[in-house]
Amino acid sequence: MIYCILAVYSCFLGDYGKALRYHQSELALSSASGNLLDEGVAHRKVGECLCELGQFDAAAEHQKSHLQLSRRLSELVGGRVWWCGGLDGWMEIRDIHLSVQPYM
Question: Model's pTM, two decimal places?
Answer without folding.
Answer: 0.71
